[in-house]
Amino acid sequence: MILAARFNVDFIFLSETKCSVKSLAPFFSRKGFKNSTGYDAIANKGGMFLCWSDRVVVDVIVVSPNIIRCNITLVDGASYYLACVYGSPYISSREEVWTMIGNLMQSHKGSYILIGDFNQLESIDQKLGGREVINENKSAILFSPNTPARFVRLMSQPIQVKSSKELGIYLGCPIDVDGRTSTKFNYLLERIQKKISSWKFVSLNQPGKLVLINGILVAIAHHILSLYWCPRRITSKINSLINKFWWCSNTTYKGICWRKKEVLFMHKSEGGLGLKDVASINKSLLMKQSWRFYCNPSLLASKIFKAKYGNDPITLGITGKKIVVGSWAAKILVRAAASFKHHIGRRIGSGDSVSIVQDIWVSNRKIQFRHLEEMQGITKVSDLMTSDRRWNAELGMVLWAIWSHRNDIIFRDVSTDPTSVMTAVQIHVTRWQKATDLVSSHIGERQIEFGKSRPMLLWRLGEISGNQFSSVCVDAACKRRKKKDDTQWEAAVAWALEMMDQQHIQGAVRVFASSPNQAEALAVLIALKKIPPDIPNVVIKSDSSVTISALKCPSKVELETRNIITDIHREAGKRAFVLCIKVDRLNVNKAHLLAVKARKSN
């Protein structure tokens, strides 16, 4: 506006205003240009604005997105034709604008003025900045490690670009990671160390440190952990920094570690503090990427991976196949899937796509046969099923009887006898039917063993209501205190639900008991309280015969345990059916391990 006032300007034209005419008119009106016209910008794109002073007379003819046409009459009476042009930024629309300009010049025979931004170049030299050149500050040339230094200098001089030994970092992630060195991840340690040092003079309690560790320190490395398999040296040092920060805010001092590092990183339900383990998070995030490929085969990345490596990362990992020639990113996805293969269950379904020999479907390894020729015609899991998708028990019995008779022929010099094979098949089928009847009856008063039976120790209350059952195993771990004058037992009780849909209901708690029998009774009582009340039928498995005998006859136990037995009867009366059964130690091993861990945690 200073120039307009100095040179006595009567017209001002603005192109590509990116705003409306009403927003510009008040400003120019205060500067003396009280008359204006123009075309509003659309979605902050384009826009034109033309204003003039009172010294001239302007007759606006047409206002369009690209041209403003008007007649101008100056103070001395001279008349001109004015066309203000804003050329289209799109190449496909430029021809239309130039056609309008050509028609204007042909239709008007008098004097005219043509001004504006035409968005047209006759040569690349007219572009701002000239021809495209290499940005020396943002560019680098990378040579192989075995390239001689003199060749590096000779080849870098013509393009005036500095040489580099690595590709650098893009979006906070190192580009040229190949898994052969851990130096690429050292900056993660520096960032975490710097963040911990910034909290040096902040007074924090333990819950506050827990939030900062899980919410900030571990989150700093999340984008790296989700892309690369971090070396063990890096994850160990990060965990060490977290451990030091937990026990002492100043990382220059080691502090006193009152608990083992494994206890700190253990889940809260298992008696730990719930600190995030960087190595475990690294595997989990990479497994999440692999699982995304497996669940979304229509993704472009999934199609490219499968076309190049033959299958998705999950299938390659659980089948034990490795990528020999491929990128480091592809190898770590398969490696992450392989680390979880013992925790991945495969749904058999119809069994048409599951191979008996090639796939892992029974245990954590493939089934091996000494003589595959004996499996002719039986290659898929579906061959072992009936038409109603049940296991073909008769087929399994026949194969087992043939195999047993074959061993008798080879090792015991028994002559071939098809009758003995059929007799063995009938015996096996009878045993299978007995086992099926036992399972279908849910609970039995006696345990049936093939050929003999023995009484089972159990206690039951109520009658079965419906088909919804909850089976839970309980156990207690006890140890007498070291003081001789103290007769208390230091104990912990644990419970673990065995139903797949209620797998999260498990835990352990430390208790004080006067005897191991009292601790076992407390385990049964606490398990009954932890099971949701909407489950009517409950089966409790315990390896303590004393507890079950006490439930059957409470008057024969000591007073301290008798009160607990009374509470168990009261809790059991709130449900339709409760059964407490004596089992072997192996059947309650999961609860036993939880109880031992809880007892040793303090």
How would you characterize this protein structure?
This protein folds into four domains: 2-124, Deoxyribonuclease I, Chain A (4-Layer Sandwich), CATH 3.60.10; 183-276, no CATH class; 283-343, no CATH class; 457-600, Nucleotidyltransferase, domain 5, CATH 3.30.420. It contains 19 helices and 19 strands. It has helices spanning 2-6, 21-30, 91-107, 149-156, 186-198, 206-220, 222-225, 232-247, 261-264, 278-295, 300-309, 313-318, 328-339, 393-411, 418-440, 516-530, 545-552, 559-572, 589-600, and strands at 11-15, 35-39, 48-52, 57-63, 67-73, 79-86, 112-117, 141-142, 163-164, 169-170, 173-174, 446-449, 452-455, 458-462, 469-480, 489-497, 506-513, 537-542, 577-582. The strands form six sheets. It has a six-stranded mixed sheet with strand order 14-19-18-15-16-17, with helices on both faces. A four-stranded mixed sheet has the order 4-5-6-7, with no helix packed on it. The longest helix has 23 residues, at 418-440. The relative contact order is 0.04. InterPro entries: Endo/exonu/phosph_ase_sf, RNaseH-like_sf, RNaseH_sf.
